[in-house]
Fold Alpha-1,4 glucan phosphorylase.
Amino acid sequence: MDARYKSRDIERRSLDVDGLKRSFLEWLVYSVGKDARAATRRDWFHTVALAVRDRVVDRWMDTTRSYYQEDAKRVYYLSLEFLIGRLLTNSLSNLGIVDECRQALDRLGLSMEDVVDAEPDAALGNGGLGRLAACFLDSMASQGLPGYGYGIRYEFGLFEQRFENGWQVEYPEQWLQFGNPWEFARPEVLYPVQFYGRVEEFRDSVGDRAYRWVDADRVLAMAYDTPVVGYGGDTINTLRLWSARATRDFNFGHFNDGAYMKAVEQKILSENLSRVLYPNDATETGKELRLKQEYFFTSASLQDILRRYLQHHTTFENLPNKAAIQLNDTHPAIGIAELMRLLVDQHALRWDDAWEITRATFAYTNHTLLPEALEAWPVRMIERVLPRHMQIIYEINAKFLNRTKARADGDNARLSRLSLIDERGERRVRMGNLAFLGSHKVNGVSALHTELMKQTVFADFHEEFPDRINNKTNGITPRRWLKQANPALSELITTRIGEGWISDLSQIAALRDKADDVVFREEFRRAKRKNKKRLAAYIARQTGEEVLVDSIFDVQVKRMHEYKRQLLNVLHTIALYNEMRDNPTVSWVPVTKVFAGKAAPSYHMAKLIIKLINDVAKVVNHDPSVHDNLKVVLLPNYNVTAAEIIIPAADLSEQISTAGMEASGTGNMKLALNGALTIGTLDGANVEIREHVGPDNIFIFGMTAEEVNDLRASGGFNPREVIASNPSLKRALDMISTGAFSPDDRNRYHPIVQALTDGGDHFLVTADFADYCRAQEAAMHLYRDPEEWTRKAILNTANMGWFSSDRTVNEYAGEVWDVHPVHPNHDGEGFR
Ligand code: Z16
């Protein structure tokens, strides 16, 4: 059907207060189906979201139409995770109608905060990698770049964390329970995805060997689209998430009642594919369902990308000029074999042509060097689940190994390191090697991480392809992480330097001068204090604990992981507690230690660390002898929304991973941008943060990545000796091991003490302890001088402009994707 009209025939929704108010009432009554008197907070949230979504749709269609009409090169960001958080404030803010909406609600006697708080978090990610994807979506739309996100519409996002008796307990996160007003279901955008079965060889029309994948199970991928509103509302991009739907194919062969019910059961089970996000951050579990999720969304996305390309083209040689596909980690790396399969098996391209197109289209981002996080699927599993892909991987591998130098030199060790197949023990496919080989560009996420990639996991590949590895230091969107999360500070900034910083964060450098202005410092402190009050109220609500607003808010918020060394922070907390008890007459700087973060449900050590923090909090917070000078809180269920409250209130930002282990970090950037001083190691992007904020405005401590490497190469160290020579460390550890924090179970923390002593202290907690305490003392000392502290805090905010994800995305656009901004035509002339 082809209706004839111009888009200007559609009445565009008004953005003023009256229009919004009218729209709210219409949506409430006619779509939510409630009377204003009966409407709950959630009803109002749905009402407002649907009315706001109206204001996005026409611009969204304009954007999509402009991309189509210009046949623009698009970038496709394939990611198993998008950690989006709430969207209401984000949409309003990017459309520029926050105040209008507040007033419209006001006229209805409603509070904007109440409405905003009724929105659940879209937590379709674990941590940094997923949040980075969400920041990139915001930045691509805000830069006018034709960028699409592709992922999975998990029915259950990252689990909800509660503490029961101090232990982490996981509950399902049912974010879709009451419906999702932001998404548009596209039941007609449906692609088949196959699993299992076998491969049949046959002769094609010209007598060449060809293959088809037969007798496979089929699942359908159905699209749900969420508009991604760019800043200013000019560009509205698309996040397309796939949901698994059963097919209607039936085995009519044995059609009787029993077989019918059995077949339907199978159909129901096939929809489990998109049920739940795997809760692992930087560790892979190797579960078959996870491999199927990876292939499911990758295959559907590639089919969709090729369909879009074929609207304008009849051959594939131009695919790399029209599509850039970015692999967010190796999770979608099976896409390299899948694109080869689609091109060779379904579109009859010659292998070498298909390979050239594939390599020119894909690029791969690596996010970790941790060996336990590098995906390596058992060959036996891929053979069974994706038999044709296993053949293709073998073929890619054989062709590659045949022409490497290593073969010529007879260097078999090197050859086996370059192989896509790890032959040591159970044979496995190294997804990192596949991603590297199938991409024209491979990047790390900070300068240090990229250097280490070249020296370690990809050393052989780097030698083979010296131009392929490049660095793209991560960034964060200033819209969510400063403008929206920190209205107090962002309004202050705007009154002083204008609002240009919101879309060009480099302009925030204009605040540098203001660091020496006493009036500005006072106002900067006032903004921070307001945020600290907000956090204190949140802490009281969440934990029942009262904290001093004038204490140092010392914040460590991130996933719980041994390499991130929450334990180092806990040991310092205990040492400080002891010092305060020993010296009750000293006038201490009050300190509030704020922790938050989830542990992977199967990561026992991380869960034990959670229990330890809660146990330490119980003892410290109720000990009158420290006179409220020290409080410890572990906030439950850290997510994007909690981060938006915690981060603007932080004084001190804990970025204390073992050097060489944190690929980049992005929380470090959010905290520094919001005026927290960093206490950190020279790891990940901390190195670059130091360069930007200046060494005087950051507390760096601990071993460098090189020193860590040398120490490990020389056989490690003896933590027992380090502990024996440091009385405060020894005392803190003794307290943990003798049950000072666990009188009900004195052996509870044996595994932790063991890991830090006889276990060899793999993460060098004891080795860095003394220098960490020195840096902590320097921070506490500085905090006594509010003017100096504030001056440095301002310099942090002023010098963080480079860490905008706009900068990151522009670097990708120029150096990896070759995509350019498109300016959508909003004049209403376009044909629909
Ligand atoms: C993840 O969040 C990260 C790496 C990884 O292999 C898997 C997941 Cl789910 C993180 C890194 O740990 C962090 O350093 C980095 O800042 C972030 O990815 C984004 O690059």
The chain has a mean pLDDT of 96. The pocket of Z16 is lined by residues 126-129, 132, 281-282, 329, 367-368, 373, 445, 474, 662-666, 684 (CB under 6 Å). The two ends are 11 Å apart (CA to CA).
